[in-house]
Design brief:
heterodimer, A: mainly alpha, B: 11 helices
């Protein structure tokens, strides 16, 4: 099996179990408030990490290239409340245009 | 419209505007999966079984940057860890039979949970009606993205590597609704940037999870 196939199967198993954990295991015992606070902060911390590593990450070093301009354009789109797909397309187009112009 | 009534149709109707956005999200996954080397049918299968958009994108991102299978799966687990408390909060409302609970729990995602718990008490049918609409929208959107994406051509030259961070940013933005969330995001970003020069791809993302420990402080 390819890595892609293993990833898809593994992600499905992990996610199905996490979604089922609350209703099946924890049922009547609510999580402590501190645990809930910590878990709620996981998504913002990880998404922020994804944003910066995908924008500035090179091969074991940080770079500022056409992607940064694309993401900056995405910030403008988000502030203007543009739809998700539009935001993503603008980021890609700005990046591709900068690259095509040799930057 | 009784806010205390519990029926599938009310949930489904309420979820339609969200469903449109989710379909677009699914379509972007269908397009970008190709850029990360995941085939069309596999991308659709992933949306149908994992059904958690941000984790799916994260898995692709880690893999596309040579981060390895285990790191990608750890990122999926961390991004979906929120479903433990979310699931626990509606546990009492779901069907009592364990197998049905298992299936119903798969439809409890951020958006359906928000719709199904409006007013405080979880309403099972509203939750499941909303979840079903969002599921169909997400899987249908992925199919559309896979089909449409096939016509786009070479994804590498189209700036799609910037599409990923743009998408994560758009997902992150509405979550920055508290000081704690903003601090966690800032710390997570700083930790991952600091690690990029020293660790294999994917590790900086997983390590950023440490930032959520600030939730232990009041």
């Amino acid at each position: 099996m390819t890595t892609g196939t293993l990833l898809v199967i593994g992600a499905a198993v992990v996610t199905v179990l996490l979604k089922a954990a609350g209703p099946l295991v924890l049922g009547s015992h609510p999580l402590p408030e501190a645990a809930r606070r910590v878990l709620r902060l996981l998504a913002p911390a990880l998404l922020a990490a994804l944003v910066v590593t995908q924008t500035f990450g090179g091969d074991r070093h940080l770079v500022i290239d056409a992607r940064a301009a694309g993401v900056a354009a995405a910030v403008v789109c988000i502030l203007l409340r543009a739809p998700l797909l539009g935001t993503v397309i603008v980021a890609a187009v700005v990046t591709a245009a900068l690259r095509a112009s040799g930057l | 419209m009784g806010a205390n009534r519990d029926n599938y149709l009310e949930g489904a109707r309420t979820a339609i505007p969200v469903g449109v956005a989710v379909a677009v999200f699914g379509a972007s996954f269908g397009v970008l999966a190709r850029a990360a080397g995941i085939s069309g049918p596999l991308a659709v299968f992933m949306s149908a079984t994992t059904f958690a958009g941000s984790a799916q994108f994260a898995a692709l991102a880690v893999l596309a940057h040579g981060g390895g299978l285990v790191t990608a799966l750890v990122a999926v687990a961390l991004l979906n860890a929120r479903y433990v408390p979310i699931g626990a909060s509606v546990a009492g409302a779901l069907h009592p039979h364990p197998l049905r609970r298992l299936f119903e729990a798969q439809l409890v995602i951020d958006e359906s949970w928000a719709i199904g718990t409006r007013g405080g008490t979880p309403r099972r049918r509203v939750l499941l009606g909303a979840g079903a609409v969002i599921y169909v929208a997400f899987v249908g959107g992925t199919i559309a993205g896979v089909v449409g994406g096939g016509m786009i051509g070479d994804p590498a030259r189209l700036g799609l590597d910037a599409a990923f961070p743009a998408l994560f940013l758009a997902l992150l933005w509405p979550q920055l609704d508290s000081g704690m969330a903003r601090l966690a995001a800032l710390l997570g970003a700083a930790i991952s940037l600091a690690l990029v020069p020293f660790t294999p791809a994917g590790v900086p993302i997983v390590a950023a999870a440490v930032a959520c420990a600030i939730g232990l402080r009041r």
